[in-house]
TrEMBL record:
It is found in: Cell membrane. Pfam families: FtsK_4TM, FtsK_alpha, FtsK_gamma, FtsK_SpoIIIE. Its main location: membrane. It comes from the Bacteria. Residues 676-895 form the FtsK domain. One of its GO terms (cellular component) is plasma membrane. The lineage of its organism: Bacteria, Pseudomonadati, Pseudomonadota, Alphaproteobacteria, Rhodobacterales. Belongs to the FtsK/SpoIIIE/SftA family. InterPro entries: AAA+_ATPase, FtsK/SpoIIIE/SftA, FtsK_4TM, FtsK_alpha, FtsK_dom, Ftsk_gamma, P-loop_NTPase, WH-like_DNA-bd_sf. This is DNA translocase FtsK. ATP binds at residues 693-700. Keywords: ATP-binding, Cell cycle, Cell division, Cell membrane, Chromosome partition, DNA-binding, Membrane, Nucleotide-binding, Transmembrane, Transmembrane helix. It comes from Pseudooceanicola antarcticus. PROSITE patterns: FTSK.
């Protein structure tokens, strides 16, 4: 018995194919549902929702509830926008499987899906985040920032350059890989490109055709309508006027019944229009109806106002009605003949506008409709149009004041509309006045699209003419040239649906277009969580930004545009009350103040507006107002404080790229300007800073922010500090940090010693740099870095003398140990106290350092709360071009520190005026740093060990070096009984040489004061150089002549 070794398939081939199709469709539905669900979860993500990383009692905002929040939070945190790559791929492959468009081997493409997700995440990390992004990491999540940080670390370019290169490289790579993973083939790409190109071409052709047809048709119809309406109305008016003149002259004969049967009498009443072609309808033609119209005064049943819109347009579109030329020539001949005879015409002969038969208009409309385009659509309100004919006009007299009735009845929508040219046009004669006004007041259709045009159906009214003037105007008037008529724009009646253009009010509010503050590389690195694999710590690390207050806790306040516009108009009114003519052209809101830019009227002095600062503040109910000119512009800036002031925090400035990624040697975070942009200054370029402000203005807080700026950027090997605090309260908290060269100096006498040591250090550094042949500290430190890298010593060949036998010079090689010179920043919190104790010595030291310390890397930051001329002398101001003024009490103090007014108008609490380089003045708002933040930063720095103090900073140098320093500073001009005073020796030499000695003589010779000369003479008398004064005041020189 034989058994079958191979089993038959469970299903046949058709069933297997059907199951395979249904299986792919099921997979497609699953992928499509998953992709849409993930997209909904990511789109509705809210950081406040409870998740694996945060617990909150707030209601869940995610569309999928708590489940969606638990999924979206880790996806956003880990891969950021890379999660959208998963959703998009799922939807695309779901559609491809469901529509049976998938490749035979989709696995070969889907295997690169993780790479696509990684590329999108890293690319998101290279993008700039917006203000709405709530996290500290970038758009690529923690993974994207980590990979991007590693790539930037190995890149030889700068951080900004590396980010740009990464974005340029990753973008195209991500798009190309995404198309490959999504299964897009070349055929599909070509097909999509072809359909896209066809759609663009068809759209362009359709728009061009639509615009071309609408514009050409509108122009054609508008031209025909204007010309035909003007010629027809003018011809009718001329014919009626001539007919009435003839009727007046033949009135007695016309009363005879036999006159009515005279064929010559009927010939005078020749109709205006006639039709040479047979009428298409059985109704009477134009020639048959016009005589009846002339002889019968009652109106016809139908009038112009009762016609259909299309018929009116087509009737006006006729270029010339039959017989028009013959009638016009006859009218012209009759008018000229009567003008030559000089026959008077009474004022009772007013024109009478009568209706034209509807049959003639309809016949002309049908002829014009067959050859005229119809791009315009007349959609007037037919139901609202009055349904009656033209009433007969009463006879006009010279004293008539009532206007003539409008064609088609009086339309209440036209009430109140004026015709500015009525008066001059009314001066024409009766006949021509109505013809000209009828043409000039015809509304011309606008050249707009046919689907949007709405035209008023009513005909404008014809103003009355006061009387007929018998002059030769008719002889000079060309009836065949309607284009020469005046074409001034006139007021016309529009329908309620028509849009009348109204000038929109100009917006003056200009919000700052600044980008959000971009975090520096260090801030981004600190925002990313890191794992401490290596427990070994570095010798010194910069303090973390987390020790400072986060800017996310600050409440932002913004005024609406309507409130700013209202304030601008109110300010214009206030200025107008004080006689200042101008216009507010721009409003720039900021975090603390809002600047209103005033464009003054020609001839208005800026000093006049600046002097009104206090009055403006009172009228605007503001605490203060600062008025100043805007450099480089013709406007005057008026700065008013906001109702709700926004606090500026230091962390936001230290985390900015302008601070962290800049190449400044000594960066200082000063604050934010009026527009909210960070203001970062370089102390190395200043090179010294003078700060002034009253108590409570934020001066001490600003010094703390400057110190923290240096501590957050520079290590003790790069920068050392000397702090002098006579108040013993402000800077003592920094005692013990590694950056100090000496303990915080609180004694004013030791402060003088410390400043003299700084002068000595400056002289020593100058000698070192001169030996190396460099110009500044940067060049010296560059040489030191190169020598240390090569392991070499500085060597210098110097000549020490000459050989006694040969006379040749002797040279020796001097080796110098390369040592890096750190920057030294001297911070003096209160200069007024030092000037009271030792003003002369302090001023001499400051003057010497301010003049020469820049190249040696020594910089001064000096502050005072009494900016008077005895503290801030002219010598100090001349050597401190960079100054900062906080709120002061008077305009005099503002002029002392800045050279102009304005500091007395500041708000206090960090509001400052920053003058860089003695030129441009910028208003800044300093950041706030609490005492707790300063203590946390100091505690973090103290953890790295005690500072390395340098001896002699507060102890003072030895006597020999002290004498040299005093000689450099010019401080050894007092009387010295040991003979070491150079001035005394000079005075003795003069007395011995000239054999004269008197106080006035010594004063003139040495150019010194009287008191000092008297002390020198008394000292010479005590030492026996001269004798005492005799009875006449002369002294004898006791030292023999040399």
């Amino acid at each position: 018995m034989a058994y079958q070794t191979k089993r038959d398939p469970l299903f046949d081939s058709d069933m297997q194919a059907a199951l395979e199709k249904r299986g792919k469709e099921l997979i497609g539905l699953v992928l499509l549902g998953f992709g849409l669900m993930l997209a909904a979860v990511l789109y509705s993500y809210a950081p406040q929702d409870p998740s694996w990383f945060s617990a909150s009692d707030a209601p869940v905002q995610n569309w999928l509830g708590l489940f969606g929040a638990s999924i979206s939070a880790p996806v956003i945190m880990v891969i950021g926008i890379g999660g959208w790559a998963i959703a998009v791929l799922s939807v695309i492959w779901g559609l491809r499987f469901g529509l049976h468009l998938a490749d035979e081997a989709p696995v070969g493409r889907l295997v690169f899906a993780p790479v696509f997700v990684v590329l999108m995440s890293v690319y998101g990390g290279a993008l700039n985040t917006s203000e709405s992004w709530p996290h500290a990491f970038g758009l690529g999540g923690l993974f994207g920032d980590t990979v991007l940080g590693a790539l930037i670390g190995i890149s030889p370019l700068s951080v900004a350059g590396s980010l740009k290169v990464a974005a340029l490289v990753l973008g195209p790579a991500m798009v190309a890989l995404g198309l490959f993973v999504a299964g897009i083939t070349r055929v599909e790409m070509r097909l999509a490109f072809r359909w896209l190109l066809i759609a663009i071409v068809l759209t362009y052709a359709f728009i061009a055709k639509l615009l071309g047809r609408g514009a050409v048709g509108a122009v054609s119809v508008a031209g025909h309508a204007t010309r035909s309406a003007g010629e027809g109305l003018r011809a009718r008016a001329e014919a009626r006027a001539e007919r009435r003149r003839d009727a007046r002259l033949t009135a007695p004969a016309a009363a005879d019944p036999a006159w009515a049967e005279d064929p010559w009498g009927a010939q005078d009443d020749e109709p205006l229009y006639y039709d040479e072609t047979p009428a298409p309808e059985e109704k009477p033609g134009l020639l048959g109806r016009l005589p009846g119209l002339v002889r019968r005064p009652e109106p016809q049943p139908q009038s112009w106002d009762q016609m259909d819109d299309d018929e009116v347009l087509m009737a006006l579109g006729e270029e010339e009605l039959p017989g028009d030329d013959r009638i016009r020539a006859k009218i012209a001949d009759v008018v000229r003949a009567r003008a030559r005879r000089g026959e008077p015409i009474s004022a009772e002969e007013g024109p009478e506008m009568e209706d034209v038969p509807l049959s003639a208009i309809q016949a002309a409309a049908r002829r014009a409709k067959r050859r005229s385009p119809a791009p315009l659509i007349f959609s007037g309100d037919r139901a609202a149009a009055p349904d009656h004919g033209l009433p007969p006009e009463p006879p006009l007299t010279a004293a008539a004041a009532a206007p003539t009735p409008r064609l088609g009845g009086a339309d209440p929508r036209h009430a109140g509309l004026s015709y500015p040219d009525e008066a001059p046009m009314a001066a024409l004669d009766d006949d021509m006045g109505h013809a000209e006004l009828a043409q000039s007041e015809m509304p011309a259709p606008e050249l707009v699209d046919a689907g949007q045009l709405r035209v008023e159906r009513g005909v404008p009214s014809i103003p009355p003419a006061p009387e007929f003037r018998d002059d030769d105007d008719d002889e000079h008037y060309d009836f065949a040239a309607p284009e020469e008529l005046p074409a001034e724009p006139r007021s016309m009646g529009f329908t309620e649906g028509a849009k009348i253009p109204v000038a929109e009010p100009r917006k003056v509010v200009q919000h700052s277009t600044r980008k959000p503050v971009q975090p520096s590389a260090r801030a981004q690195a600190e925002a990313q969580p890191s794992l401490a694999f290596d427990p070994a710590e570095a010798e010194y690390e910069l303090p973390p930004l987390s020790l400072l207050t986060s800017p996310e806790t600050i409440q932002r306040h913004h005024l609406s545009d309507e409130a700013l516009e209202q304030n601008a108009r109110m300010l214009e009114s206030v200025l107008d009350d004080y006689g200042v003519k101008g216009e507010i052209v721009s409003v720039r809101p900021g975090p603390v103040v809002t600047m209103y830019e005033l464009e003054p009227a020609p001839g208005l002095k800026a000093s006049r507006v600046i002097g009104l600062a206090d009055d403006i503040a009172r009228s605007m109910s503001a605490l203060s107002a600062r008025v100043s000119t805007v450099p480089g512009r013709s406007v005057i800036g008026i700065e008013l404080p906001n109702d709700n002031r926004e606090m500026v925090v230091l962390r936001e400035l230290l985390a900015a790229r302008d601070f962290g990624d800049s190449h400044m040697k000594l960066p200082l975070a000063l604050g934010k300007d009026i527009g909210g942009e960070p203001v970062i200054a370089n102390l190395a370029k200043m090179p010294h800073l003078l700060i002034a402000g009253t108590t409570g203005s934020g001066k001490s807080v600003a010094i703390n922010t400057m110190i923290l700026s240096l501590l957050y950027r520079l290590t003790p090997e790069d920068c050392r500090l000397i702090m002098i605090d006579p108040k013993m309260l402000e800077l003592s908290v920094y005692d013990g940090i590694p950056h100090l060269l000496s303990p915080v100096v609180t004694d004013p006498k030791k402060a003088v010693v410390a400043l003299k040591w700084v002068v000595q250090e400056m002289e020593e550094r100058y000698r070192k740099m001169s030996k190396m042949g460099v110009r500044n500290i940067d060049g010296y430190n560059g040489r030191v870095a190169d020598a240390l890298k090569k392991g070499e010593m500085f060597s210098r060949t110097v000549q020490t003398g000459f050989d006694e036998e040969t006379g040749d010079p002797i040279f020796e090689t001097e080796e110098i140990q390369p040592e890096k010179m750190p920057y030294i920043v001297v911070i003096v919190d209160e200069m007024a106290d030092l000037m009271m104790v030792a003003g002369k010595e302090i001023e001499a030291c400051i003057q010497r350092l301010a003049q020469m310390a820049r190249a040696s890397g020594i910089h001064l930051i000096m502050a005072t709360q009494r900016p008077s001329v005895d503290v801030i002398t002219g010598t100090i101001k001349a050597n401190f071009p960079t100054r900062i003024s906080f709120q002061v009490t008077s305009k005099i103090d503002s002029r002392t520190i800045l050279g102009e007014m304005g500091a007395e108008q500041l708000l206090g609490m960090g509001d400052m005026l920053y003058m860089a380089g003695g030129a441009k003045i910028t208003r800044c708002h300093g950041p706030f740093v609490s005492d707790e933040e300063v203590e946390e930063v100091v505690s973090n720095l103290k953890a790295y060990g005690p500072p390395e103090y340098i001896g002699g900073v507060v102890e003072g140098p030895d006597d020999e070096k002290s004498a040299d320093i005093d000689a450099v500073l010019g401080l050894n001009t007092g009387g010295n009984t040991n003979g070491e005073d150079a001035l005394y020796d000079q005075a003795v030499a003069i007395v011995i040489k000239d054999r004269k000695c008197s106080t006035s003589y010594i004063q003139r010779k040495l150019a010194i004061g009287y008191n000092k000369a008297a002390r020198l003479v008394e000292q010479m008398e005590d030492e026996g150089v001269v004798s005492a004064a005799n009875h006449v005041g002369k002294r004898e020189v006791l030292v023999p002549e040399q």
